[in-house]
Write a sequence for this structure.
């Protein structure tokens, strides 16, 4: 409850939140002022909605208007996903809320030279070294793909996992092998967190640089910066435990817990928005001045970056 005469509370900065909460087969509502998930037996589970970055709703979850409104006020992204995140249906806060940042992002994407500089910076951050000179975006995409496939093979060997290639059918989750199921569940976690960061920073998920033509192209760009250092090793580690018969819980739950621990260990929530700004700054185009009534940072603190929330 907001006391009379006091301004409404501002959202907690993304870097100070927990990463993700998954909900399935429950009714989500606001009860007695709290954001809760109610299961089939009527048991309430309190969800600290203002303290998480992204709420991911799986099949069987229903959410009320009051709950969506509260999540929006808290600046928490709500997404509707398929089982274990293998499909992404919709997001509760689409688009960015800062026109100056959207214009800057679009200018960078439309300028061929600036876009190439951004992609080269992404490559450098991802692999810890500068990309080869005089390469086009398509050529860099091919080199990156080779390095990723090589990393997959190394991680599979290290964890004793049978591995052929990245292969899964979004329409048939159980048809994929264990390693691909682990990778799909792990990347779903990272994509949800990355989209929450993109929106919190005030940018558009669809305007990508290396990835293009998809509703979440920029989300994939940003997620790939940390993918090989966070969720991919955890996915292969869990797959190795499955093949050795050492896993005592469902695969998807084990992957989510491992990703949660990886996000905490690497401090990803504190790095992801500054990483977005660093990547875009590499395009070397001046930022447009924000309009006078632009939404400010969630908290007035140095380099918060969380200025994409809607009021």
């Amino acid at each position: 409850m907001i006391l009379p005469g006091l301004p409404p509370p501002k959202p907690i900065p993304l870097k100070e939140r927990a990463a993700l909460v998954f909900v399935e087969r429950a009714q989500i509502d606001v009860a007695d002022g709290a954001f809760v998930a109610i299961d089939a037996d009527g048991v309430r589970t309190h969800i600290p909605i203002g303290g998480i970055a992204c709420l991911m709703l799986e099949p069987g979850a229903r959410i009320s208007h009051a709950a969506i409104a509260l999540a929006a006020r808290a600046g928490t992204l709500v997404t509707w996903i398929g089982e274990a995140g293998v499909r992404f249906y919709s997001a509760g806060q689409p688009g960015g809320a800062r026109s100056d940042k959207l214009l800057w992002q679009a200018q960078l994407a439309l300028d061929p030279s600036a876009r190439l500089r951004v992609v080269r910076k992404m490559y450098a951050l991802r692999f810890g070294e500068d990309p080869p000179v005089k390469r086009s975006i398509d050529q860099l995409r091919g080199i990156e793909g080779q390095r990723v496939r090589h990393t997959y093979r190394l991680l599979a060997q290290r964890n004793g996992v049978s591995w052929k290639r990245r292969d899964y059918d979004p329409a048939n989750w159980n048809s994929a092998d264990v390693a691909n199921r682990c990778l799909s569940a792990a990347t779903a976690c990272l994509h949800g967190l990355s989209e929450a960061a993109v929106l919190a920073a005030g940018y558009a998920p669809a305007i990508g640089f290396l990835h293009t033509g998809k509703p979440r192209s920029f989300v994939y760009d940003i997620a790939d910066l940390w993918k090989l250092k966070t969720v991919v090793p955890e996915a292969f580690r869990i797959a190795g435990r499955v093949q050795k018969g050492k896993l005592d819980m469902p695969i998807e739950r084990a992957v989510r817990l491992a990703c949660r621990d990886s996000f905490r260990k690497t401090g990803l929530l504190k790095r992801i928005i500054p990483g977005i700004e660093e990547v875009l700054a590499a395009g070397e185009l001046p930022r447009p001045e924000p309009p006078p009534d632009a939404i400010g940072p969630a908290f007035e603190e140095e380099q918060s970056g969380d200025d994409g929330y809607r009021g």
